Structure to design on (284 residues):
């Protein structure tokens, strides 16, 4: 088969929360729908995510990471990209770093979503020590996609409540780029009450670009993972960082709007499924 027709392959390193539409239950369908083979390395198995649902089960899969990786390596599997998100333990940061070190020299694109915090606070299972480790993982990435809270933890600066101004956002982006990754997409950017979106910075041209959509009031669980998965798929399909950010922002906004229209419980994730066909057409 001609090389141009070769299907791309991504390794997705996230937890699997059975219910609640986030991490692998979002990354797998979204990236696959965009035509990319998605290989799953689960970091933990939970009954639901940890955001506002009590009584969830939690099974840490740290001990399985290297055996799974070694098996894949023994099969000679290669990956166009590695996309990491929610990690299950402090030790996993080091293990995921080892996976990056193995595949980066082979040309794999490394995308890190430093999933650990939102609205100024760390998620329940994360410690400040783990937040520091996530920052170290970001240093080794080609693309990172923190929200503003995560950006503040990585940079060690105080979190500020929205709205923001361009100077604040552009300063965060440029400081994150100096920190390591050449491409940075910051989510949760808002300059007023009516719009919400992402700001992207590519060190290759040094320009900051914005992708805003209509703001829907309230907090919607899993939207960072919906956005990140659509972003990674679009970039791998050859879109520029700015176009990929716009496609991902519009797709996420559509999922939020469908969820609001249906009156669903916002802790149960957003209806990203109904937008998959459109996303696949856009992210081609
Ligand atoms: O969407 C981020 C996320 C992923 N995985 C788990 C989570 C969260 C956020 O709360 O709890 C298990």
């Amino acid at each position: 088969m001609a090389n141009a027709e070769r299907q791309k392959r991504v390794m997705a390193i996230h937890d699997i929360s059975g219910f609640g539409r986030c991490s692998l239950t979002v990354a797998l369908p979204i990236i696959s729908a965009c035509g990319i083979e998605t290989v799953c390395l689960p970091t933990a198995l939970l009954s639901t995510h940890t955001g506002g649902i009590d009584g969830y089960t939690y099974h840490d899969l740290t001990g399985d990471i290297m055996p799974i990786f070694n098996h894949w390596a023994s099969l000679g599997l290669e990956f166009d990209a590695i996309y990491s998100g929610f990690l299950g333990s402090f030790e996993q940061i080091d293990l995921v770093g080892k996976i990056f070190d193995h595949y980066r020299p082979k040309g794999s694109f490394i995308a890190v979503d430093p999933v650990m915090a939102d609205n100024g606070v760390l998620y329940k299972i994360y410690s400040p020590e783990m937040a520091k480790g996530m920052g170290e993982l970001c240093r080794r990435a080609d693309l990172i996609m923190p929200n503003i809270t995560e950006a503040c933890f990585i940079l060690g600066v105080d979190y500020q409540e929205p709205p923001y101004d361009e100077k604040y956002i552009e300063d965060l982006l440029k400081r994150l780029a100096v920190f390591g990754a050449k491409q940075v997409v910051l989510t949760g950017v808002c300059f007023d009450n009516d719009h919400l979106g992402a700001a992207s910075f590519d060190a290759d041209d040094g320009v900051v670009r914005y992708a805003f959509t209509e703001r829907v009031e309230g907090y919607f669980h899993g939207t960072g993972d919906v956005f990140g998965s659509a972003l990674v798929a679009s970039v791998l399909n050859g879109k520029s960082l700015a176009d990929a950010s716009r496609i991902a922002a519009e797709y996420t906004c559509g999922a939020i709007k469908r969820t609001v229209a249906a009156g669903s419980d916002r802790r149960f994730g957003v209806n990203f499924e109904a937008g998959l066909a459109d996303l696949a057409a856009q992210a081609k």
